[in-house]
Design brief:
By secondary structure, the chain is of the alpha+beta class. The protein has one domain. Helix content is 11%, strand content 15%. It is built from one helix and four strands. Strand 3 and strand 4 form a beta hairpin. The longest helix has 10 residues. The protein binds zinc ion. The site of zinc ion has 9 residues, from strand 2. Keywords: DNA-binding, Metal-binding, Zinc, Zinc-finger. This is THAP-type domain-containing protein. It comes from Hypothenemus hampei (Coffee berry borer). GO terms for molecular function: DNA binding; zinc ion binding.
Length: 94
């Protein structure tokens, strides 16, 4: 199964969408979990990813050394809600 974003189901795309694991830092991790309506104790977050669509440009830093590769800052918190549109119809888009 290909990895996709927990919230919007986007897959990694060259150049614009990147997938990010839940951070190790417990405070930041909890903030991510709250954002996703998950529980850090009840839910297994290790297999989940959030895509870059939920973060602002300020949440990233760019490494000049490695061909301008983008990194998510270790204390970045998701702030943009985007959901997938499903044909079933119960999901809300944006
Ligand atoms: Zn996403």
């Amino acid at each position: 199964m290909a990895l996709s974003c927990y919230l919007c189901k986007r897959k990694r795309q060259k150049g614009n969408i990147t997938l990010h694991q839940f951070p190790k830092n417990i405070c930041v991790r909890k903030a991510w979990a709250t954002f996703c309506k998950l529980n850090t104790e009840r839910d297994n977050l290790n297999n989940l990813r959030l895509c870059s669509s939920h973060f602002t440009n300020n949440d990233f830093k760019t490494s000049e050394a490695e061909g301008k590769k983008r990194y998510l800052k270790h204390d970045a918190m998701p702030s943009i809600y985007i959901f997938s549109k499903r044909r079933g119809g119960e999901e809300v888009l944006f």
